[in-house]
Design goal:
The protein is of the alpha+beta class and 111 residues long. 27% of the residues lie in helices and 31% in strands.
Length: 111
């Protein structure tokens, strides 16, 4: 009985050793800086930027004429470059020169 157990242990250890020799080494786990740059660039270069969406949460005009708008949850007080403020909407001039109108409670795409 002891001989059989010893024989089985030898067979199992030989099989495990043979399996380890047949497996290729793990190799490099991380990419080089050049490989990462190629992966990031992709086959066609960098991906186009998604359209920038802005949400107008509210407009407040005080009795002295000063205004505050809430754009994307952030309060902007006073006159803002490229933004015309109306009673219930704003008009934003984009970098390309296009004008986008956004009503209170809605969103607008700037690109």
């Amino acid at each position: 009985m002891k001989k059989q157990i010893l024989l089985w242990l030898m067979v199992l250890s030989a099989a495990a050793a043979a399996r380890d020799e047949a497996d290729p080494p793990l190799g490099r786990l991380f990419y080089s800086a050049e490989q990462r740059a190629r992966i990031d660039a992709g086959p066609e270069g960098p991906a186009p930027m998604p359209p920038r969406v802005r949400k107008l949460d509210g407009i407040l005009r005080s009795s002295d004429g000063a205004s505050t708008i809430w754009l994307d949850g952030e309060a902007l007080r006073g006159a803002q470059k490229g933004i015309s403020i109306g009673t219930d909407r704003i008009r934003i001039r984009t970098e390309s020169g296009r004008s986008v109108e956004i009503r209170v409670g809605t969103t607008g795409r700037l690109r």
